[in-house]
């Protein structure tokens, strides 16, 4: 019997423990009797798996701050490369990950991508036990941490077809919003576990802080013993049971993932495409990063599109068997103009969220950790600021708010329309970004920058809140614009490109701090938000819009 993903009234088919052969979420009777239970089970296994993926992806934003506090022999610029590498890797891995559900199935994908996170978690814990570990080792581990970033694309593509259209905004908002709590969880948990020997002798010896640090509950003075390696090891406590739950508790939808073959074959497809993306990301980084790590031949704006194009071409080259027609079917989304408009709009929301999450801890440390004194000759001198706020105490607040409010954005958009919500939050982000830039300028020119920190943090919280609401609204708009076959791949693709924000923000903010003009980074973001505001109005809100939404 032919599978039917949507067809209300279709004859029921058998459902195996792994593969769901009959799936009709738009059929109210089917949904209430069978579908809701299956969909919710897959959603609530997906959420913590995605949370841990986010945590491992962006953990370098906190680890690098503590590495500086412990006296690791790397410059702030070298530390920024670790956050940038993990960001670019995660974004690039999202490109193949957006196709995994189609070619390998949801259950197979979530299990394997969750299990793979054990590699960077364990490796990072081992590497952090020794200050003499070479920079390239940390850069390689940052590259592998991108597996956690890739997980978002396949997770969202997987959850979308489980729910009827009327509930997709809420379901995707829950998956993404609670999954995004991985950022906050990481920013709170890592500083806490570094304060004690959680793993006793198995976790290695402590190091001594050479600079003050902190946690959610307060500052930690220099001279305190610290187990920074716990920032890697702790994730193994969650990943092992989550991988087990994914393997035995999740499902593949046959109509969404036709002809995926055996579980082993599905795993092989995922590993092949992930290896391709890691190689292309690594090659692009080699061309972009300065010596001695790379050649320094390309700037960021050339390296990124080159990596994207080469990754897509390489995927087509290595595809074999039934992968080829399935990939070709998914590539059809690139012919739709709404794929590209929603890609830009999702950069505004998720790109900002993950980019600022990555860059904020180091930005707080560098901008407010020093007093900026102008001498008689007009030269700015940077001296240690004894009243500096601890990034480890405050950096978690913005991502927490953004993740917490994300399901609300989906719910509101289900009621009033995604595009109008996107328009409102874009206006807010234009103003908040420009205001943050002004405050950063004031702080950079002050001998007592801490006086500007409350305003700085408050404005960033506004940015995170707006981006969180906007994440839900763009998900809802995609559900309206595309049919069920296209919605999942479009969600995956847009999330992949938006994830490059985790690379762009640390690089742009880091470069502008180095140049002494941190405000220009935020002014540039404000201009981009304004352009996307116009785009959203033109495509979806004007009188003769391509698709009126609402």
What does this structure look like?
It is a single chain. This protein has 550 residues and is mainly alpha-helical. It has a single domain, classed as MFS general substrate transporter like domains (Growth Hormone, Chain: A), CATH 1.20.1250.20. The protein contains 21 helices and 8 strands. The chain has helices spanning 28-58, 60-70, 76-104, 106-116, 118-127, 135-159, 165-179, 181-193, 230-233, 236-249, 263-288, 300-318, 323-331, 337-368, 391-394, 397-416, 418-444, 453-481, 484-498, 501-515, 519-541, and strands spanning 19-20, 207-208, 213-215, 218-220, 225-226, 252-253, 370-374, 380-384. The strands form 4 sheets. A two-stranded parallel sheet has the order 1-6. The chain has a two-stranded antiparallel sheet with strand order 2-5. A two-stranded antiparallel sheet has the order 3-4. A hairpin with a 5-residue loop joins strand 7 (370-374) and strand 8 (380-384). Helix 2 packs antiparallel against helix 3 (76-104) and helix 17 (418-444) runs antiparallel to helix 21 (519-541). The two termini are 38 Å apart. The relative contact order is 0.14.
């Amino acid at each position: 019997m032919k599978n039917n993903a949507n067809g209300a009234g279709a004859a029921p088919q058998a459902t195996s423990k792994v593969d769901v052969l009959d799936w009709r979420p738009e059929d109210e009777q089917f949904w209430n009797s069978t579908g809701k239970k299956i969909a919710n089970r897959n959603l609530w296994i997906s959420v913590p798996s995605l949370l841990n993926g986010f945590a491992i992806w962006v953990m370098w934003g906190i680890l690098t701050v503590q590495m500086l506090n412990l006296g690791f022999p790397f410059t702030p610029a070298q530390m920024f490369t670790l956050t940038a590498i993990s960001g670019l890797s995660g974004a690039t891995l999202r490109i193949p990950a957006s196709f995994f559900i189609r070619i390998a199935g949801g259950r197979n994908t979530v299990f394997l991508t969750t299990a793979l996170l054990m590699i960077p978690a364990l490796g990072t814990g081992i590497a952090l036990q020794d200050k003499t570990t070479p920079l390239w080792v940390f850069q390689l581990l940052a590259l592998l941490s991108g597996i956690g970033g890739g997980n978002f694309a396949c997770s969202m593509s997987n959850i979308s077809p489980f729910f009827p259209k009327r509930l997709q905004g809420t379901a995707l908002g829950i998956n993404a919003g609670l999954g995004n709590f991985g950022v906050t969880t990481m920013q709170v948990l890592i500083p806490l576990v570094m304060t004690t020997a959680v793993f006793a002798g198995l976790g290695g010896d402590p190091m001594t802080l050479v600079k003050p640090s902190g946690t959610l509950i307060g500052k930690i003075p220099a001279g305190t013993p610290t187990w920074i390696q716990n920032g890697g090891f702790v994730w193994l406590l969650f990943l092992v049971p989550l991988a087990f739950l994914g393997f035995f508790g999740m499902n593949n939808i046959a109509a969404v993932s036709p002809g995926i073959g055996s579980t082993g074959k599905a795993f092989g497809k995922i590993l092949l495409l992930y290896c391709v993306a890691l190689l292309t990301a690594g090659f692009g980084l080699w061309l972009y990063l300065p010596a001695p790590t790379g050649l320094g031949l390309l700037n960021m704006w050339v390296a990124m599109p080159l990596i994207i194009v080469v990754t897509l071409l390489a995927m087509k080259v290595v595809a074999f068997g039934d992968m080829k027609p399935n990939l070709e079917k998914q590539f059809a989304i690139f012919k739709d103009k709404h794929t590209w408009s929603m890609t830009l709009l999702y950069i505004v929301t998720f790109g900002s969220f993950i980019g600022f999450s990555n860059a904020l801890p180091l930005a707080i440390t560098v901008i407010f950790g020093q007093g900026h004194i102008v001498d008689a000759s007009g030269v700015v001198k940077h001296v240690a600021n004894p009243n500096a706020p601890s990034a480890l105490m405050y950096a978690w607040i913005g991502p927490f708010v953004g993740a917490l409010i994300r399901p609300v954005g989906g719910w509101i958009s289900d009621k009033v329309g995604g595009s109008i919500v996107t328009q409102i939050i874009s206006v807010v982000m234009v103003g908040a970004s420009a205001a943050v830039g002004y405050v950063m300028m004031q702080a950079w020119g002050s001998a007592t920058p801490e006086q500007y920190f409350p305003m700085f943090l408050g404005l960033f919280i506004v940015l995170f809140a707006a981006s969180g609401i906007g994440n839900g609204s763009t998900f809802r708009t995609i559900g309206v614009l595309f049919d069920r076959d296209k919605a999942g791949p479009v969600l995956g693709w847009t999330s992949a490109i938006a994830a490059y924000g985790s690379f762009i923000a640390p690089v742009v903010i880091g470069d502008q701090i180095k140049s002494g003009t941190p405000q220009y980074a935020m002014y540039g973001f404000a201009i981009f938000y304004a352009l996307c505001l116009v785009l959203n109005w033109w495509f979806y809100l004007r009188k003769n819009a391509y698709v009126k939404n609402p």
